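Fold this sequence, please.
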Amino acid sequence: MPDLLLLLFLLALLGVPVLLACGATVFAAETAPRGRHGLMRSGHLVAGGCVAAAGLALTALTAWWTGEDVHYDDFGSSVTVLLAVVGATTFALGLGPFVPWLLGVLGRGGARVPAALRLSARHLADRRARTAPAVAATMIATAFAVAVATVAAAGTAQSRAQYVPQARPGALVVRLDSGRPAPGIAAVRQELPGTDVARGLSPVNPYSLTVWTADTVSSSSPYIGDQALLRYLTGDPSFPYDKGRAVAVTSEKGRHDTARIEYRAPEDPPGDPRISRTVPATVVAPTAGGVEAVFLPAELVLGMGVKLELEALIVDPSLHRVTAADRDRVQERLGESAQAYLEESFRSSPYWLLFVGAAGPAAVAGALAATVRSRRPDRLLLRVGGSPAAARGLTACRAALAAACGAVPGAAAGCAAGVLLAWPFTASADWDPAPRVPFETPWSSIALSAVAVPVLAAAVALLVRPGRRR
């Protein structure tokens, strides 16, 4: 049932924008005058403005709902995201009637602009019922690309701030399955010959070990091992190894000269651990990008009567540089008995580029569709001389102007929608939500989209061989 609900949510999340985007092109066609000199009905513009304002208000209200850095449950997060998307696409839907209005304004004005640009504007305004839907498609595709890029920038900034490394940058960590025999160190050394492998140990299940330092900093998963593991955590080969002393690798300020170790089983009552011991401790700052943890010498834990088992194998990045290909080879040799992980620091997800990449050709295609001529004699072509070069130049000018009429307002609309959509899309579903971090609006990408779409449309139009005149 949860999978079905997730599928329905994804279908709604993708289907609603598509339907409303198609509605924007229909809205633009239905409100367009049939002739060049026809004026837009004020009722159409008022209706479009009201629809756009309602959509923008819904998106802004959803952003306000999700403005606090608190826990949002899964259902609430899904509903707010869907409402925000509906509001943003309704906003785009309401912009449909303004496309034929803009084409009419351009067709009637521009007496002092170059002839090719003036003739192109008149051509687009001549049959607005045909050209307006195509220009509206360019506007919607550009707005979609800009909104996705803006939301991706906000999500990337938030994910980078919340990212917690699982190991030192460049370290290979092989986590073993305690229920299955694994090739272990031999497999790693066969694929990475001459590598010094540190071993991470853990109490035999179902027992747990908790370490408290400074009475406030605790670690329920301390690193237990030998000198090689301590060298990996500190990044300092000369750091002294004391079999009876804990090491707190932390950037926290406070008193860390002792550590209290509690060892308990599930059946132990709260506050009454099976074994409790206080040992000396030393504090050391973590390396750049390194993990913060508490290290316990294996001899110290074994001396408490705790049984240990091999949990992980770690390749120190300061001793051996591991590549993604090395990780894949180790994983193939280990099979399903272990999981090899290479810490590569935070990397942003590139999947949003797929949506932007799909929207770009759609925007250019809309602009080209607006320049398609009928089979009747093209009087505009006759007026500029009728040569093939002039025909291609006029076609390219038409395509660029149609693309600009869609891309420029689309980029502005997408920017406004994207900034508001960033709030619900970065709302936290965790019980301990992290505060939001500011993000930089991708102004360069927004400006590029407004310029690149007309340039690409003109370039493609130049490659099209003009048809014969009849």
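The longest helix spans residues 388-425. The mean pLDDT is 81.
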